Amino acid sequence: MQEITYASKTFVTTDAISDALLDLVTSIGRASHSEAVNVPAYTETGTRVEAKMTLDASSELVAIPVDLDIDDDSANDEAVEAALRDIRGRISNWSTTAVPVKPEEALPVQFSDEF
Fold first, then answer.
1. Could you give the number of structural domains in the chain?
2. DSSP class of residue 49?
3. Does residue 22 lie within any of the structural domains?
């Protein structure tokens, strides 16, 4: 479990949701827009709640591992899996792949000793 701090609030969520949120913020930075996201989260007593947030390129998320006694079925149920599919689907929409420039396509660099 990870405790996420965002906009001066904290919530606890699964490791997988935490990783996905951090990946999402990185992807948003490249795409230059914001996303409204809902994820399963847990209170200090282990009660399931829904965390809602709007993330953009300037979002600062901090994730810290925590021990929280929750029902393992709750951490692996359909709501968690649905949130992961949603976040990963958003990330895959913006993923970019770096393609190396072929030597014949590279622009020549003009060097000069003049300042």
1. 1
2. E
3. yes
